[in-house]
Specification:
about 375 residues; alpha/beta; 5-stranded parallel β-sheet; 10 strands; about 15% strand; globular; binds 5-amino-5-deoxy-1-O-phosphono-D-mannitol
Length: about 375
C-alpha cells in the first residue's frame, strides 16, 4: 500500500507531480488562455460584487492561505485577510455583505474551520470550501467547493494536500482575475504557463532527495533551526518549520528575514542551522543581506534559490537549486525540499514518521 516507499509521507511527497497534474486537469485549457472552474455556482454579478475575501484555515492549510492571499491580491486585486480558524471564530471579524469566505481544509473535518464556515453562513456570507475530501462536512456545508485532487493523504504531516491547495488557489486567483478583468495578458502567460509546467518542475525538485538526506543526517542533533525568507519565501518558511517540528521534533522557527534583527538574531550562534529561501527576485538583495547577517554569526546556512544563480553560493554553506520557473509559483517548488528535509530528519532520528506523537490526522475537537 505504500507503493515501495518506506512511509506514507515519503510516498505522498513523491506523488506531488501527479497530484498537481490531477488538480490542473480540466481547469487549465490547453492553449493556456483561460481557467475554467465549472463547479462554482457564482453568477457573473456575484463574482463582480465580491469586495473582500477572508481565508480561514488551520496549520498547513493556513500556510496555504497565506500564499493564496498574495496570489488573489496580486492577480485579482481583491483585498484578502487570512486567519487561523481558532482565532477567526472569536474575533468578530469585520465583514461586508459581499465578503467571500474561503475555508481551506484537507480533511474537510477540522472542528475550528467548520465552526468558522458555519458562523459565516449564519451571517449570510457566501462560503467556498477548498478541500481534498469529496463528501466531507466542509464539502457538504459550503455553498461552493473546489476539490484538490491530491488523492488520499494518510501521513499526519500534510504534503501533497498543501501543494494542491496552492495550485487551486492560483487557479482561483486567475479565474477571479480573468472574470474581473484584472489579469493582464502578460500575467496570464506567466501564471498559467508556470502552472502548466509545475508537474515537470516538481519531478525535477525531487531529485534533490539524496542531498537533503545527507544534510538531515549531518544535522540530526540540532536543537534549534531557523527558516528565513521574505514575501512568499516567508510563507514557505512557516510551512518548512512546522513540518520539521511536527515529525522530527527539532525546534524550528520561521522568521521574516528582515525581522531577525529585532530580537531573534540573538539566538543565531556558531553552527545553528539556518535554512534561507531566496526565490523572490524582487527581494533577492534584501534577503542576501539578511543571510550575510546570520553567516557573520557563524550559522550553518543552507540556501534555496533558482538554478543558474551564481551569487548565493558565495554567502552560504550549501545550496539547493530549484529548476527555474516563475517566482510567483515558487512556494509550490520551494516547499518540496523542506518536506524532504523534515522527512529525513524524522527518519534518522527514529521517529514514527507517519504518526507523530500527540497529533491526529484530522483535528475534530476544538
Ligand atoms: O484537514 P485540515 O487541512 O483542516 O488540517 C489542518 C491542520 O490540522 C493540518 O494541516 C496540520 O497542520 C498538519 N498535520 C500539518 O502537517
Amino acid at each position: 500500500e505504500r507503493g515501495g516507499f518506506q512511509h506514507f509521507m515519503q510516498k505522498e511527497i513523491h506523488e506531488q507531480p501527479k497530484a498537481i497534474r490531477d488538480t490542473l486537469t480540466g481547469r487549465l485549457d490547453e492553449d493556456l488562455q483561460s481557467v475554467a472552474l465549472p463547479e462554482l455556482s457564482w453568477t457573473d454579478e456575484s463574482l463582480q460584487a465580491i469586495d473582500r475575501i477572508h481565508i480561514v484555515a488551520c496549520g498547513t492549510s493556513w500556510h496555504a492561505g497565506l500564499v493564496g492571499k498574495d496570489a488573489i491580491e496580486k492577480i485579482a486585486k481583491i483585498p484578502v485577510e487570512v486567519d487561523v480558524a481558532s482565532e477567526y471564530r472569536y474575533r468578530d471579524p469585520l465583514v461586508t455583505p459581499n465578503t467571500l469566505v474561503i475555508v481551506i481544509t484537507q480533511s474537510g473535518e477540522t472542528a475550528d474551520t467548520l465552526a468558522a464556515l458555519r458562523d459565516s453562513k449564519q451571517k449570510g456570507l457566501r462560503v467556498l470550501a477548498i478541500t481534498n475530501v469529496v463528501g466531507s462536512s466542509a464539502a457538504r456545508e459550503a455553498d461552493d467547493v473546489l476539490i484538490t485532487w491530491a488523492g488520499p493523504e494518510i501521513a499526519v504531516a500534510s504534503t501533497k494536500a498543501y501543494t494542491t491547495q496552492l495550485v487551486t488557489l492560483y487557479l482561483l486567483a486567475a479565474y477571479l482575475g480573468q472574470a474581473r478583468g484584472t489579469l493582464s495578458s502578460d500575467a496570464k502567460a506567466e501564471v498559467l504557463g508556470a502552472l502548466a509546467g509545475l508537474p515537470t518542475v516538481a519531478e525535477q525538485v525531487l531529485d534533490a532527495a539524496p542531498r537533503i538526506e545527507r544534510f538531515a543526517k549531518d544535522y540530526q542533533e540540532a536543537r534549534d533551526t531557523f527558516f528565513i525568507g521574505r514575501g512568499l519565501d516567508y510563507a514557505v518558511s512557516l510551512e518548512g518549520a512546522l513540518k520539521l517540528k511536527e515529525i522530527s521534533y527539532i525546534h524550528a522557527e520561521a522568521y521574516a528575514a528582515g525581522e531577525l534583527k529585532h530580537g531573534t538574531l540573538a539566538l543565531i550562534t556558531d553552527g545553528v542551522p539556518v535554512i534561507a529561501l531566496a526565490t523572490q527576485t524582487h527581494l533577492y538583495e534584501k534577503t542576501l543581506s539578511n543571510i550575510k547577517e546570520v553567516k557573520a554569526r557563524d550559522a550553518f546556512v543552507l540556501g534555496l534559490t533558482w538554478a543558474g544563480d551564481e551569487e548565493l553560493k558565495k554567502s552560504v554553506d550549501e545550496v539547493i537549486y530549484l529548476p527555474r520557473t516563475s517566482p510567483v509559483v515558487a512556494p509550490i517548488v520551494a516547499v518540496i525540499p523542506l518536506q524532504l528535509l523534515a522527512y529525513y530528519a524524522a527518519v534518522v532520528r527514529g521517529n514514527d514518521v507517519d504518526k507523530p506523537r500527540n497529533l491526529a490526522k484530522s483535528v475534530t475537537v476544538e
